[in-house]
Specification:
The complex is a heterodimer of chains A (341) and B (558). With 341 residues, chain A is an all-alpha fold. Helix content of chain A is 76%, strand content 0%. With 558 residues, chain B is α+β, with helices and mostly antiparallel strands. Classes of the chains: A mainly alpha (341), B alpha+beta (558).
Chain lengths: 341, 558
C-alpha cells in the first residue's frame, strides 16, 4: 500500500472511530451525572418550592422516567444534533450557550497554546544547546515547576503581581466595561475587531487576553520544554550534526537551523494531546480571571446539576479533542515522511 | 533496506516546513492589510486600555461590580437576589416600598387594594399613562397577562402566586380584580415581588417553559441595553413615568471570584462594588476607606442564618438534646471570630427590623450557657461515659459557614469537655439540598432569603406542615423541605390564623406566639443575621441599601 493510501485509510479509520469515542464520553457523562447526588429540579425551582410543583416539573422533563429511557431519549436527541435546553436558564438551548461562551474559550486556548509552544520550545532549545550547564538545569527545573504548580495559584500570583501591584494588566474579564466589545459573527474579539478594522479594540482585547493566556500557556509549556530538550539533545548527537560541525558550521546555526527542526516533530504530536489539557486548564484559568468562557459556564452547570448543559458541553469538548487529534495526525504525516500507518 | 540517513528526512521535511512558514507569513500579511486598510466601524472609545478603564469616565454612567450570576432575566423565572435587583430597576410592580422605609406604597396601582370582607377579593385601581419600554400602553389587560404568565409558565417562583391566586380579571381598563384561594394577609406585600411586573403580551408568551432569559421589556426606569456572559448594561429610560434616574445608565461587570471584585474596586476600576465580598475583604475595605478614597455603606439585611435540627434522627429527636444544643451556641463568639462584627446575633427567625421580632432564644437559652446544657444533657441520659455526638453539616462552597461550624465545634468541645463530640461535615450545594429534603443530616447550617417583606415568609416556610402527625412528624410540607420535619398542630393552626387575620395587632400577637412555640420546640436555632455592605468611590452619591434589601440604581449619581 502506498504511503498516501495508507494515510487515507488511517484517517478514515480515525473518523469512523470518533463517533465511538464520543458515544463513550456521552455515556460516561450521562451515568456519572445521574450517579452524583443532587436534584436538577432544585436548581430550576429552588429548594423551597412545594413538593407537588417539583414533581410536576420532574414529570415534564422526563426525570421520572427509567434511566434507560432517559438515556435512549438523550441519545436520540443527540443523533438529531439536538443538545437540549438548559434547566437553570429556561428558554436557552445548549447550542446557544455554546455559541455565546465558546469563542472566549477558543481565544484563550489558542493564545495559551501559542504561549506554551513558544516558551516551551525556546526554553527547551536553550537547555539542550548547553547540556550539563546551569542553563540545562534551569530548563529541567522549569519543566518540573510548571508541571507541579497548581493552575489557580499561579494565576492568582500573576494577577497579584502584574495586575494589582504593578498594574500592567487588567485584573480579569475579557473587555473593559466602559467600551463596546467588537461585534461579529466569529465572537472572537481579536478576529471581529480586525474584520471591523477597529485597531483599538484589537489591542484592547489582546491586552485583556495577555495575563490569562500567559498563565495557562506557561503552565502547559513545561510539556513542550521537556520534549524539545530531550529530542534536541538526541538530535545533537546524530551523525549529520557531527558532519555539520566538521564542516565548520557555527553551533548556533546547527542547533536552531538544522537540529531543532527534527526535534520539533514530536511537538506536533504533543500539540494534539495538549488540547484536552488546555480545555481542562481553561476551567481554572477562566474562574481565576473571570473570563466568560464555556469552561466557566460548565463549572456553573455542574454546580446546579444542569444535566443537558453539562452533557452538551462535554460532548462538544469531546468533538474538539477528537478533531484536533485527527488533524494533528494528518499534519504529522505531512511533516514527517518517516511516519508509517 | 535503505540505511536511515538523517540528512534525507531533513531534506524531505524542508518543503512542508517551508510551506507552513509561507502560510504564516501570508496570514500575517493579510492580517496586517486588514488592520491598516479597514476603516474603523466604531468610533474609538474615550476609554484607554488601562487597569482603570472601567473607572468613572464622566459620561454620567455608573460602573458596578458583582460576583452574582444572572441566570435569567425572565420575570416569570428569575429567583435569585441579584436578578431580582435588576428586575426591580427595569420593571415596576403594583406595589413597592417608600424608599428608606418598609412602608407599602402604590407604584403601578394608584392606591392600596380594596379587600373584601372575607379577605378573598382584592380590587386594585391602576395608573394611567404608563408605557412599557416598547411603547405598549400599560393597562389591566397587560397586568392580567403578566400575572397569568408568571403562574402558568412554570418558572422557579411561580408557586408564590399559584399557591394564592384563584383568578385574575381585568374588571375595568384600569382596574384589576384578584380572587384568592384562601385569605392571605401578606398578599399586598407579595405583590411587591420583582417578578410581578408587567411585560408586553406582544413580546412574551404564556406557556409552560416559554421563557425569555436574555431579554427584558418592562416599564421601569431602566431599559436593558446589553447582556453578555459577564456584563449587563442598563440605559436610563427617557420616557419613564416616575422619578427619572440620576445617571445615564449603569454598567455591571460580573466577576467569577470575590478576589477579582475586591481588587478591581480597590484599584479604582469600578464605581461600586456590591455583593459578594468575603468578611476579610470587607474588613480591609472598611479599614482603608478614608485612605483609599471610598465610602462604606452598611445596612442590616433580611437574610437570616440558622441551624436546622432533624427531629427524625438521633440524637436531635430528643427535645432536651435540641435545647442543649441551643444553649451551647455562642452567637457573640461567632460574630467576633468569623464575621469580625459584620453580622448581628439573631434570636428568632424574624429579622430584627420587624417590629414583631422577639428574641425568644436569648431569653430561653442565652449564649454559651454550658451549665444549663450540662443539666439538659444529663436529663437526656448523656454523661462523660456516654457523651453526646452530633454532626454539623454545611454547604462546601460557603467558607463562612464552614468557619462557623468549626468555631461551634471548638467552643462546644471546650465548654463541655468529654461530654459532647461535634463532627463537622460539608457537602456540595446540590447534594446538601437533596439530603436536607430527605432528612439525611442531623443538623445543617442554612440561610433564608425572603421573597417579600412580611413576617409570614419567615414563619410559614419553617413551622407549617401540610401532612403529618406528632408520631410520623411532617411527611409533606414546608418544614420537611427545611430538614427539621417539625410537626405541631398548634403551630399549623396559628400559621393559618395569622395568614387570614387582617387586623395588624391581632396578627402581630399570633406571630409572637409562633416565635414562642419555636423556642419551646427548637426545630431550628437562629444564629445570625447578615449585614449587607456596598462600597462606592468618593464622588458617587445616592448609594443605599433599602431596609427591604432592594438596591435602587436610579438614585445613584456622580
Amino acid at each position: 500500500m502506498s504511503r498516501s493510501s495508507a494515510l487515507r485509510y488511517y484517517v478514515l479509520s480515525r473518523l469512523l472511530l470518533a463517533p465511538l469515542m464520543l458515544w463513550t464520553i456521552t455515556t460516561l457523562v450521562f451515568l456519572l451525572l445521574r450517579a452524583t447526588p443532587g436534584d436538577p429540579v432544585d436548581a430550576i425551582l429552588g429548594a423551597r418550592a412545594p413538593e407537588e410543583v417539583k414533581a410536576a416539573v420532574r414529570e415534564r422533563l422526563g426525570l421520572n422516567a427509567p434511566l434507560w429511557l432517559q438515556y435512549l431519549n438523550y441519545m436520540g436527541s443527540l443523533l438529531r444534533l439536538d443538545l437540549g435546553s438548559s434547566l437553570t436558564t429556561q428558554g436557552q438551548t445548549v447550542w446557544q450557550i455554546i455559541q455565546v461562551h465558546f469563542p472566549a474559550t477558543l481565544e484563550l486556548t489558542v493564545f495559551s497554546m501559542l504561549v506554551a509552544v513558544t516558551v516551551g520550545v525556546l526554553v527547551g532549545a536553550l537547555a539542550a544547546s548547553r547540556p550539563n550547564t546551569a542553563l540545562d538545569a534551569g530548563g529541567r527545573l522549569f519543566g518540573i515547576i510548571t508541571y507541579a504548580v497548581p493552575m489557580y495559584w499561579f494565576g492568582m500570583v500573576l494577577q497579584l503581581v502584574f495586575a494589582v501591584q504593578l498594574r500592567w494588566f487588567p485584573i480579569g474579564t475579557r473587555f473593559p466595561l466602559t467600551m463596546t466589545p467588537p461585534q461579529g459573527w466569529t465572537g472572537l474579539y481579536l478576529v471581529d475587531s480586525l474584520l471591523q478594522g477597529n485597531v483599538q479594540a484589537f489591542f484592547v482585547a489582546l491586552y485583556y487576553l495577555t495575563l490569562p493566556s500567559l498563565t495557562l500557556g506557561i503552565l502547559i509549556s513545561g510539556v513542550f520544554e521537556r520534549i524539545v530538550r530531550i529530542n534536541l539533545k538526541q538530535t545533537l548527537r546524530a551523525d549529520y550534526v557531527e558532519a555539520a560541525r566538521a564542516r565548520g558550521i557555527p553551533e548556533r546555526r546547527i542547533v536552531f537551523a538544522h537540529a531543532l527542526k527534527n526535534a520539533l516533530i514530536p511537538v506536533i504530536t504533543v500539540l494534539g494531546l495538549t488540547v484536552a489539557s488546555l480545555l481542562g486548564g481553561a476551567i481554572l484559568t477562566e474562574v481565576t480571571f473571570s473570563w466568560p468562557g464555556l469552561a466557566n459556564r460548565l463549572y456553573q452547570a455542574i454546580e446546579f446539576r444542569d444535566y443537558p448543559v453539562v452533557q452538551g458541553v462535554m460532548v462538544f469538548f469531546g468533538v474538539i479533542v477528537a478533531i484536533a487529534s485527527i488533524l494533528i495526525d494528518i499534519l504529522n504525516a505531512y511533516v514527517d515522511p518517516r511516519i508509517r500507518y | 533496506m535503505k540505511g536511515f540517513v538523517f540528512f534525507r528526512p531533513l531534506a524531505a521535511v524542508r518543503q512542508p516546513w517551508r510551506s507552513l512558514l509561507q502560510f504564516g507569513v501570508l496570514f500575517s500579511l493579510c492580517a496586517g492589510l486588514i488592520v491598516s486598510c479597514g476603516a474603523p466601524s466604531n468610533p474609538p472609545s474615550t476609554a484607554s486600555p488601562t487597569t482603570t478603564s472601567a473607572s468613572p469616565s464622566g459620561n454620567g454612567r455608573v460602573t458596578m461590580g458583582t460576583t452574582q450570576k444572572v441566570e435569567t432575566l425572565d420575570p416569570a423565572d428569575a429567583y435569585t437576589i441579584f436578578t431580582g435587583i435588576l428586575l426591580y430597576n427595569m420593571g415596576d410592580r403594583l406595589y413597592t416600598y417608600t424608599p428608606g422605609t418598609t412602608e407599602l406604597a402604590p407604584q403601578l396601582a394608584t392606591e392600596l387594594p380594596t379587600i373584601s370582607k372575607d379577605g378573598l377579593t382584592y380590587t386594585i385601581p391602576l395608573r394611567e399613562g404608563v408605557k412599557l419600554h416598547d411603547g405598549t400602553p400599560f393597562d389591566a389587560a397587560v397586568m392580567k397577562f403578566s400575572i397569568e404568565r408568571f403562574i402558568k409558565n412554570g418558572g422557579g417562583p411561580a408557586f408564590l402566586l399559584s399557591d394564592q391566586i384563584a383568578t385574575v380579571e381585568a374588571s375595568g381598563k384600569y382596574e384589576l380584580t384578584i380572587q384568592l384561594k384562601s385569605p392571605f394577609a401578606a398578599f399586598t406585600s407579595l405583590l411587591t415581588f420583582w417578578g410581578v411586573t408587567p411585560v408586553p403580551p406582544t413580546a412574551y408568551e404564556i406557556g409552560e417553559g416559554k421563557m425569555q432569559p436574555t431579554s427584558f421589556i418592562g416599564s421601569g426606569p431602566y431599559k436593558l441595553a446589553a447582556l453578555t456572559p459577564d456584563a449587563i448594561k442598563l440605559d436610563a429610560n427617557p420616557d419613564y413615568w416616575g422619578e427619572k434616574p440620576a445617571n445615564q445608565g449603569v454598567d455591571i461587570q460580573i466577576y467569577a471570584s470575590s478576589a477579582n471584585l475586591y481588587n478591581t474596586f480597590k484599584t479604582k476600576g469600578l464605581d461600586i462594588a456590591y455583593q459578594t465580598l468575603e468578611p476579610d475583604q470587607i474588613s480591609s475595605l472598611e479599614k482603608d476607606a478614608s485612605a483609599g478614597g471610598w465610602q462604606v455603606i452598611e445596612a442590616g439585611s433580611t437574610v437570616v442564618n440558622y441551624m436546622t435540627l432533624n427531629q427524625k434522627l438521633e440524637p436531635t429527636k430528643d427535645l432536651n438534646v435540641r435545647k442543649a444544643i441551643a444553649t451551647m451556641i455562642d452567637r457573640n463568639l461567632i460574630n467576633q471570630r468569623v464575621f469580625q462584627g459584620q453580622a448581628d446575633p439573631l434570636y428568632s427567625l424574624l429579622p430584627t427590623s420587624f417590629s414583631t421580632y422577639k428574641p425568644v432564644f436569648k431569653a430561653a437559652y442565652g449564649d454559651g450557657n454550658f451549665e444549663q446544657a450540662k443539666q439538659l444533657l444529663t436529663a437526656a441520659g448523656y454523661s462523660e461515659a456516654k457523651p453526646l455526638s452530633f454532626e454539623i453539616w454545611y454547604p462546601s462552597a460557603s467558607s463562612t459557614r464552614g468557619n462557623v461550624a468549626n468555631t461551634l465545634k471548638q467552643s462546644i468541645e471546650k465548654g463541655l469537655p468529654g461530654l459532647v463530640n461535634v463532627t463537622v461535615n460539608s457537602a456540595e450545594r446540590a447534594t446538601l439540598s437533596k439530603g436536607v429534603d430527605e432528612g439525611a443530616y442531623t443538623t445543617v447550617l442554612l440561610n433564608w432569603y425572603p421573597d417579600f417583606y412580611d413576617a409570614d415568609t419567615f414563619i410559614q416556610p419553617f413551622l407549617s406542615c401540610d401532612q403529618g402527625s406528632p408520631q410520623t412528624l411532617c411527611t409533606k410540607g414546608a418544614s420537611q423541605g427545611n430538614g427539621s420535619f417539625y410537626y405541631s398542630a398548634k403551630a399549623n393552626e396559628l400559621v393559618q390564623k395569622q395568614r387570614a387575620e387582617q387586623d395588624p395587632k391581632t396578627r402581630d400577637a399570633l406571630i409572637t406566639e409562633l416565635q414562642d412555640i419555636m423556642a419551646a420546640d427548637v426545630p431550628y436555632i437562629p444564629l445570625w443575621q447578615n449585614k449587607d455592605y456596598v462600597f462606592a468611590q468618593n464622588g458617587v452619591n445616592g448609594v443605599s441599601i433599602q431596609p427591604t434589601q432592594q438596591f435602587l440604581l436610579w438614585q445613584i449619581g456622580k
